[in-house]
Every structure is written in C-alpha cells, then in structure tokens.
C-alpha cells in the first residue's frame, strides 16, 4: 500500500480542516483518526500493519492521504521527508500555512491544551512561552521548513495552501487541491463554507492551582490515573481547566521579536509562493 499524498501542514488548524474537507471528496480517502503520526515513529516497520489498517475502508481507486502538523517541524522534518521519499517518491504534498502570528498563537494554545498528555507545562504569556518553547518560533520559519521536502521532491509535487484563502473562499482552494491531486475538480463540497475545526476556543489550559495539584507528590499520581478526557471533563466543571476565551496578549517586545526573527524567512517563502511581499503586513 502506498500513500498518494500528505498534508504536512505547518499550520495545525489548517492541516486538520484541510484533511477533513479533502476527505469528503468521493475520489479521496483520509482516515477518520486525526494525525496518525506514522512517519515519525521509532517503530516504523512494526507499526506499518496498524497504519495500513486505517486505510482498509478505502474504496478501490480512491487516492490515499493523511496529514500531520508534526511532519513539518524542526524536530521531525528531516526524518519524515526522507522516509516519505522512500515510501513513495511520487508523493504529492500539500502544505497549509497561515499568518505566523496566528500560527504561534494557535501553537501556544495547543501546548497548553496538550501539555497534560506529555507532562509539559507551557509557560503563561506568549513572550515567556517563546523563550521556553523554541518550537513556537522555530516551526514558524516557513521557508526553512519547506527546504527539507524540496531536497527530496520536485516543486511540481508541492502545493502551498494559505488558511486565510481557505477561510475566505474554500471552494476555490479545494478546486486547486483537486486539480493538483488529479481528481474531479468539479466536485462541490457543500459543507466547506461552514466547517471550522481545531478552533482556539476548543483548547483548554490549566490554572496555577491545577498545575500545583498535578505536580504535588500526594495528588499528582492519583490524577495521572485518570484519562485526559476524564480530567478535562472533571476539572473544567470545577473551573480548574479553562477554555481560551480571550485573545492572546502580545507585548510590543514580543511582536518585534517575531518580526525580527522571521522577516527574512517569510520574504523568501512568499516569493517562492508567488504571493505579495505585504501579504502579512507585519513582515513587509
């Protein structure tokens, strides 16, 4: 079994949304499970039967695809791009991107939301988080992230999709994807205009009291026995695990740090994509 295309999205929100929408095309199959993470696994060969099982419901002739934001990170991109090339040298790749500030905000929320799964306490405050979690800025170097794949794949195997475009005119962006993948581009997805997945308001964060309880020698091990969904349900009801209902607060210092760090990289990336240099005005 060969996978025909991947969505190694730089933007997690864009990856989730795009995979869902592409999977509704009758000529495309994408597993229901989000982000299988197969190509980053240490036990790649041993895991392959389970991975292939995800695609068993596919109908004959359907293109097989999947996506993961983890496939396009500083930590895993070199490994994944080489493995994907070995798996299928004619693989097609769809990268989803968005304004870097929005991507950093989304990743900041995700680090807080997923922290209990990996025993990671994301710093409170965006500037502190960028210092404590280098991936927030590192993974936002879009041009650098793309290079690992360009070493293994031709540019005609790569399509870049902008989340802003997908939100504004989903049918047009999907048509572009269909043409790129070689499936019927006249298909109209009736749910595209109303679909928004992986919203920031769905993400939760621990209060400082809950963090104390998680790390306390008397309560931490008891809490760890509960599944993460159970913890979310209980502690949200108690007000100890809360949704992100307010915008991320940026200081002038933090904004300047992002622009100074990413400006040259973003300029090269937008040039490669044929987009205006002032598409994201903060970096113009």
UniProtKB/TrEMBL annotation:
Organism domain of life: Bacteria
Name by which UniProt lists this protein: Sulfotransferase domain-containing protein
Keywords recorded for this protein, A-Z: Glycoprotein, Transferase
Source species of the chain: Aquipseudomonas alcaligenes (Pseudomonas alcaligenes)
Limits of the Sulfotransferase domain: 3-190
Annotated Pfam families: Sulfotransfer_1
InterPro entries reported for this sequence: NST/OST (IPR037359), P-loop_NTPase (IPR027417), Sulfotransferase_dom (IPR000863)
GO MF entry, a single one: sulfotransferase activity
Gene3D superfamilies xref list: P-loop containing nucleotide triphosphate hydrolases (3.40.50.300)
């Amino acid at each position: 079994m060969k996978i025909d295309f991947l969505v190694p999205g730089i933007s997690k929100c864009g990856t989730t949304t795009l995979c869902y929408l592409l999977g509704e095309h009758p000529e495309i199959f994408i597993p229901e499970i989000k982000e299988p993470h197969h190509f980053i696994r240490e036990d790649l060969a041993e895991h392959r039967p389970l991975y292939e099982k995800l695609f068993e419901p596919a109908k004959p002739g359907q293109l097989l695809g999947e996506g993961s934001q983890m496939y396009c990170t500083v930590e895993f991109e070199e490994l994944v791009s080489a493995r994907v090339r070995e798996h299928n040298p004619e693989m097609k790749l769809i990268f989803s991107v968005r304004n870097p500030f929005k991507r950093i905000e989304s990743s900041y929320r995700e680090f807080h939301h997923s922290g209990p799964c990996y025993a990671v306490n994301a710093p409170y405050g965006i500037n502190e988080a960028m210092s404590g979690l280098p991936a927030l800025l590192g993974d936002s170097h879009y041009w650098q992230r793309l290079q690992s794949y360009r070493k293994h794949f031709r540019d005609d195997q790569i399509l870049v999709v902008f989340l802003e475009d997908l939100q504004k005119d989903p049918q047009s962006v999907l048509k572009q994807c269909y043409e790129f993948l070689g499936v019927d581009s006249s298909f109209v997805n009736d749910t595209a205009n109303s679909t928004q997945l992986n919203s920031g308001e769905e993400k939760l964060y621990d209060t400082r009291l809950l963090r104390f309880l998680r790390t306390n020698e008397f309560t931490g091990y008891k809490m760890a026995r509960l599944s993460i969904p159970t913890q979310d349900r209980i502690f949200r009801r108690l007000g100890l695990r809360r949704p992100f209902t307010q915008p991320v607060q940026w200081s002038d210092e933090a904004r300047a740090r992002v622009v100074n760090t990413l400006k040259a990289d973003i300029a090269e990336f937008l040039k490669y994509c044929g987009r205006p240099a002032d598409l994201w005005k903060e970096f113009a």
